[in-house]
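Budget justification note: compute hours in this period were largely spent on complex prediction jobs such as the one shown. Inputs:
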Amino acid sequence: SYEVTQPPSVSVSPGQTAKIFCSGDAFPNQYGYWYQQKPGQAPILVIYKDNKRPSGIPERFSGSSSGTTLTLTISGVQAEDEADYYCQSTDGSGSYRAVFGGGTKLTVL
Amino acid sequence: QVHLVESGGGLVKSGGSLRLSCAASGFTFSTYDMSWIRQAPGKGLEWVSYINSRGNIQHYADSVKGRFTTSRDNARNSMDLQMNSLTAEDTAVYYCARDPSYDYVDHWGQGTLVTVSS
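Corresponding output:
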């Protein structure tokens, strides 16, 4: 079955740039998505269709895709950005099969 | 403002059944596809099921296929998830979510916890 892979953890100091990578064979042909989840809360969408930002999401969140790698970049990280981040895609089979990565815990030092 | 509220979660014995509901408001429910997504305690997100806006097309994760059924009532702005033959592996918070374009979700409910005791 199709999988997308992301690192379990990333650490960054406040004000620095955090990059979270997600790997998946379908990314050259399928869009990627990023969700942020804080403890005890439901996830929220922070990036859709590789690099689009929903309304209300701060400009410091950006996304990109190259080859089989999807990247979430958080510029000028703030303490409030500490959360779990999940990438998501579909397998491109035409039948709906949303696939989530295992999640990356972003720690702001 | 999009608002999704899940209900129906609780404690059920292994092999039992449970029906979850999702009440939607703040948008034209009948024009959006919807999904159920779950999260086991301390684990990541797992997509469970999808239903199109008209309710005539459903897709399921292999882990629940044949046991779970999703349906919707556009007149009542609601979606259900009927869960049968539950096992401990189905223990999770279940989220309903709005799907704007067949491959992702843009709004989530707060979730309802399902606990299956073995």
